[in-house]
Design brief:
By secondary structure, the protein is of the alpha+beta class. It is built from ten helices and eight strands.
């Protein structure tokens, strides 16, 4: 008798991660983590952390944490590893080697082990850190996609973002944003003339993360516009100059 397609597909993805990795370009480690059940974090289970007790301790390097928080909300995820260890992964495109270095440095600064690893995939690098402490540092961790659940900062996280807003904005832009050059034409003396101007975009499916971004832009004095439900734009000359001073393009 022919096998059920659904059962065959499920069995194949679980028993042959190497084949799935070759077909999709996703690392075998990531596939194994996705196959594992995502458990709620210790704080969601109301289990006190052996490192910081019932209340999370803010990291010492708060400016770097603010940057890493932006990266995590944009292109990061946390999954359960072995022996109750958690794995933080942040995807960085191969086109931006400077971003990969900055991401690795941020993870090493915040990770209690002071370590990071890099896993090459097709078109991007996953910068990885292992620690039991990640759910305490990033209580936004939970089952499912970030844009399908509520994302809100803890009071201690909001205090850090308020103290280091530009680092947070830079992390968001470096993960899910960009700086591009737009152009338009105008008639000057009857002849079309091309004008170029820079602008920043931030794109995310989570309305909560969009609100965190725009609230921080407001606090920094940046004028922005909502292009659509998933996109915000910064195009005014003074605001672009402000973003260039504190954020800058990915490199």
């Amino acid at each position: 008798m022919p096998r059920s397609p659904s059962k065959s597909g499920c069995s194949r993805s679980r028993e042959h991660p190497n084949s799935v990795s070759k077909e999709t370009g996703v690392s075998r480690a990531a596939i194994r983590s996705w196959q594992s059940q995502i458990d709620p974090s210790p704080r969601m289970q109301h289990e006190p952390c052996a490192r910081c007790g019932p209340v999370a301790e803010p990291p010492a390097d708060q400016a770097t944490y603010s940057y890493l928080l932006g990266l995590y909300l944009g292109d990061g995820c946390i999954s359960r590893g072995l022996r109750r260890t958690y794995v933080l992964r942040i995807a960085c495109a191969n086109d931006w080697p400077g971003l990969i270095e900055a991401c690795a440095a941020a993870i090493e600064a915040i990770n209690p082990s002071e370590r990071s690893n890099r896993v090459q995939a097709v078109g991007y690098v996953s910068v990885v850190g292992y620690s039991r402490h990640w759910p305490c540092l990033f209580p936004q961790h939970g089952p499912g996609k970030k844009h399908d659940r509520r994302i809100a900062l803890e009071p201690w996280q909001q205090e850090i973002v308020d103290a280091h807003p530009w680092e947070f904005i830079r992390g968001l832009i470096h993960s899910d944003g960009c700086r591009i050059t737009n152009w338009t034409t105008r008639l000057v003396g009857g002849e079309p003339k091309r004008y170029e101007y820079p602008r920043y975009f931030f794109t995310n499916k989570s309305p909560d993360i969009i609100r965190l971004c725009t609230a921080t832009l407001d606090a920094g004095g940046v004028d922005w516009k909502q292009a659509n439900s998933n996109n915000i734009s910064v195009a005014r000359r003074a605001s672009v100059a402000l973003m260039d001073t504190h954020v800058g393009p990915k490199y």
